[in-house]
Amino acid sequence: MTDTKSEIRAHALLIDKLAGGTATNPDLPLAGVLIADFSRLLPGPWCTQLLSDMGATVIKIERPDGGDLSRANAPHFKTGSVYFNSVNGGKHSVTLDLSDAKGRAIAHKLIAEADVVVETFRPGVAKNLGIDYETAKGLNKGVVYCSLSGFGQTGPLSHISGHDLVIQALSGFAGLSAQPGKAPDVPGFQAADYAGATMAAIGILGALMKRRATGLGSNLDVAMFDSLFSMCNISQTGSMARDVGNTGMPMFEVWGGNPRYGTYLTADNKAVAVALLEKRLWVNFCEAIDRPDLIDHDESPEDRHSNHGDKAALYRAAIAETCVAKNRDELIDEMTRKGVPITPVYSPDEALSSENVAGRGLIEYVDHPAEGRIPQIVNPLATSGLAVKGRAAAPEAGDATDAVLAGLGFDTDTIAQLRSDGVV
Known about the structure:
Blueprint: H1 5-18, E1 34-38, H2 43-53, E2 57-62, H3 82-87, E3 92-95, H4 101-113, E4 116-119, H5 125-128, H6 133-139, E5 144-149, H7 164-170, H8 191-214, E6 218-223, H9 224-230, H10 237-243, E7 261-265, E8 271-275, H11 279-288, H12 312-324, H13 328-337, E9 342-344, H14 348-352, H15 355-359, E10 363-368, E11 372-377, H16 401-407, H17 412-420
Parallel strand pairs: 1-2, 1-4, 2-3, 4-5, 5-6
Antiparallel strand pairs: 7-8, 8-9, 10-11
């Protein structure tokens, strides 16, 4: 990502030194990219793990007193957090006290060499710590600097901590399940966290391409709220229609109002997902249960995402009766043979051990120095050769501190003194 062949070679050698001689596969698309990762918890670490999977060398900066808070998250393998391991694989950890002037000086040395800096502090905190964009740009004019926060660096909510539930609530997404007299359910997926992480990764990749063409760095202000809201185009269809004076009706029904697109219980009190949106699939189902009377030959494409009007109750009853008449797996076997897309609603344990996860190679087991063999969810880009299939286990806090400091030019005695002073 630098200008000349000699600079590229020097940069590659530096990365190898900083990584303790364990730099990534040179055939991966981000090989030679060095990332200084000041992020914690979920969105930033998942973003940088994704980039590490694609070949980047990621130096994770953690507090000397315990490191990333998510190291404590339950559940655990033998001792370490499963969660932490799931978003920090393939990285190299440096413990560094950024509140100390010596710690900031080390951070500045790292930033000066980095291609990318990622931080997830509340707006203003990075500046207080001396690692904000203007400081980074002064050290490294071509740096790609990504600030990932809940509500962005500016705006009326920028001061609010960016927890996923708060963002889903304010985006209108969590309100989709609201019923009169009952608070909406807590969403079962951290959509805002992963939306922000995904947009940050895309933005960083775009900024690296821009730098390759122009030599210019970038300052990315990625908000989890903006990222999730931009993905709410379907849930906002009615409101956008009403915003310009239309009724927004009928609704785009994918939220449970369509009886042919929902979940139903089976005889063994398990659940299945029914997705019979298209007319041909509905016809297949009706023929499979010997109910030709349920087929509407005048059904049009407009009915696909509707609530099916006065037919809804009849459709819902027929599906429910079919599902509750048999145990889940028996029902699935029968419907699969007949080409009807009804699938089990799996628990996480069932999904992890499912035939499809195994068939797609989505779980890989790696050796962890303290935990033994542990499972990892594989980056889906690995099948295309754009990411590693099995990443190195997540680092112990500070496991690469000495190697990185040595790579930055600190001698053994200085490193020992920094450790004695609590700086690292």
